[in-house]
Amino acid sequence: MKEFKLAVIGGDGIGPDVVAEGLKILDAIAKKYEVSFVKSNYNLGAGHWNRTGEALSDATLAEIAKSDAILLGAVGDPTVPNGVLERGLLLKLRFAFDQYVNLRPAKLMDGVKSPLNTQEPIDFVVIREGTEGPYVGSGGFLAQGTPREIAIEENINSRFGVERVTRYAFERALKRDKKKVTMVHKNNVQPYAGTLWTNIFNEIASEYPSITAEYLHADAAAMFMVTNPERFDVVVTDNLFGDLLTDIAAAICGGIGLASSGNINPEKKYPSMFEPVHGSAPDIAGKGIADPTATIMSVALMLDHLGLHAAASDVEAAVARDLSSRGDKKRSTVEIGDALLAQL
Ligand code: IPM
Ligand code: MN
Hints:
This protein is of the alpha/beta class. The chain folds into 2 domains: 1-99 and 260-344, Isopropylmalate Dehydrogenase; 115-252, Isopropylmalate Dehydrogenase (3-Layer(aba) Sandwich), CATH 3.40.718.10. The protein has helices at 15-33, 46-52, 58-64, 84-96, 159-174, 191-206, 218-227, 239-252, 293-305, 309-324, 333-343; strands at 2-11, 35-41, 69-74, 101-107, 123-129, 139-142, 150-153, 180-185, 212-217, 234-237, 260-264, 272-276. Strand 11 and strand 12 form a beta hairpin. The site of manganese (II) ion (MN) has 2 residues, from helix 8. InterPro entries: ICDH/IPMDH, IsoCit/isopropylmalate_DH_CS, IsoPropMal-DH-like_dom.
């Protein structure tokens, strides 16, 4: 029997609840497809930080590195200073495991209401660069605490990094119907990073004559995502623009409770990590009302990444059937998980 090692990080707030439902679906799928997932639970997040003062030790990181994939719920809690868990846990994992493709599908499913009144189907995927850009944490303060305080935040982009994520986007577009890649940046105001991205985009586009290549400024892309989402197929962009655009993408497809994501190391040199786009939602934590669908769709992305394509389609189809008959029913986290299990 094929065996996969899975690191499970429920994390904070609603994280553990939605992950529990994701695992329920995963167990059923494993049985059906005769594969096995050997799970290791990592009790990381606010509780661990409050107890130990450490977000993620190098020893634990080395442990997790041995897994085939990571399923993560959410991190962030009011008891921890802003940014500590984001940088010390979430970004540490994304960076250490070279998860340079942050894959975020945006598909408006049947039965789901979009806040837009568009009749056109919405079906695109954002490939957000995951290891560079303004996220690297390079910078510093000068004269901090004085009236002349200076903050420097560096936006780091390498040819190596931009090339590989751009190529991934074009390869992805080859497998889709619209065959279009939109690169998003602000090359009119970021002449260094913007020029690097634009040059590389044009170079790679010329290798893919069957793909329509278009460039959009980030502000225009944000607007078109709301006015003409049907124009997008594959969007490739830097880490920060991608962060902003994927919240819009989630919102127009029915909200963050449905939005899945994969932090992928395509070469499989390191484990890839799958997580819902939403956060820990401390305001509804413990109430059992968080929608686990985003996590379950992230499980589907994980199955696909692990080569279990039929299993992935199976989970997606179960979610699609549930969404199409969902209506305005209010259901608990566990009830939605059970309903999806019944759809499998
Ligand atoms: C996301 C989140 C994270 C990000 C935060 C929690 C660090 O917003 O996954 O989109 O900015 O990448
Ligand atoms: Mn975000």
